[in-house]
Design goal:
This protein has 277 residues and is of the alpha+beta class. It is built from 4 helices and 13 strands. It has a single domain (37-276), classed as Lipoprotein localisation LolA/LolB/LppX (outer membrane lipoprotein receptor (LolB), chain A), CATH 2.50.20. Strand 10 and strand 11 form a beta hairpin.
Length: 277
């Protein structure tokens, strides 16, 4: 009887050791596969700025003043990738309304690890203006989005860290803090709530040089377009001025084989209707 108890006790100890070993292996496996903050941000940029080979959208942009007055801007946005995600991209935008911006165009040549090239054609003065690199934090056509918000920011320009994990509505999110390494933007850091499932940014908060929250980005609607989760309605609100911009993709499509020739200075003044309509 005593011999049986001893064997039973030894078996329990053995099983305990086996379970502990399995637990340690599982913890190690999970930790070794845990994403770094840089990997999370890279996946987020791929999902937000780089899905498919190219993209076209008809965009309605609503500028809302603190008092509720509204202005509408309507445009077509086109984007094409060159190489892998995170690499070179080109953007072209054509404005339909209001009258003061009709026929205005904006083009971006985005490069990894160096300043992007940006051009703006202003029909009222019939002039193409080069947007200086230091103006990337300026307002994009009077909205609460900046020129840099349109095409994104290089991952290497910021120091990233995981602050916590939490839900936004029903979505499980990583909360990432991104602090610019250089003083080249008008905020001290940004918090991003990145969906663990599709890696789209669900919410972003920008903090000024005093550490006070002053701008909030929100992904208000996400739809699946050709298998790509796409933010079709978004907003940016300036908490200090009370001004807000809402942007809606009325129509959107991927992989439509946009001509490379579109993304040239010669088409800024007279872009082909084939692509702008």
């Amino acid at each position: 009887m005593n011999k049986f108890k001893v064997q039973s006790s030894k078996f329990k100890v053995f099983m305990f050791c086996v379970l502990c070993s399995m637990f340690c292996v599982l913890v190690f496996a999970l930790s070794s596969h845990a994403l770094t903050p840089e990997e999370i941000v890279k996946k987020s940029q791929e999902a937000f700025f780089y899905p498919a080979k190219d993209f076209k959208a008809r965009v309605m942009m609503k500028l809302i003043a603190k008092g509720g007055q509204e202005r509408i801007r309507e445009l077509t946005m086109l984007r094409k990738n060159y190489g892998a995600s995170g690499g070179e991209q080109k953007y072209f935008m054509y404005f339909f309304q209001p009258a003061d911006v009709k026929d205005m165009t904006f083009m971006v040549h985005k490069y990894p690890a160096k300043d992007d090239d940006r051009w703006l054609f202003v029909p009222a003065i019939n002039m193409v203006r080069r947007i200086a690199a230091q103006d990337k934090s300026s307002s994009f056509v009077g909205s609460d989005f900046t020129y840099e918000d349109v095409s994104g920011r290089d991952i290497e320009d910021d120091a990233h860290s995981i602050i916590r994990e939490e839900k936004v509505g029903v979505r499980d999110c990583y909360v990432i803090k991104s602090a610019p390494k250089a003083q080249d933007v008008d905020y001290s850091y940004k918090l991003s709530w990145i969906d663990k499932g599709n890696f789209l940014p669900i919410k972003e908060e920008f903090y000024d040089k005093k550490g006070e929250r002053y701008k909030i980005f929100s992904a208000d609607e996400i739809k699946d377009i050709k298998g790509f989760p796409t933010i079709t309605k978004r907003s940016m609100k300036n908490l200090q001025s009370g001004h807000m911009t809402e942007t809606v993709f009325v129509k959107a499509d991927y992989n439509i084989s946009i001509d490379d020739s579109l993304f040239s200075e010669r088409f800024l003044k007279a872009p082909p209707k084939k692509w702008t309509e």
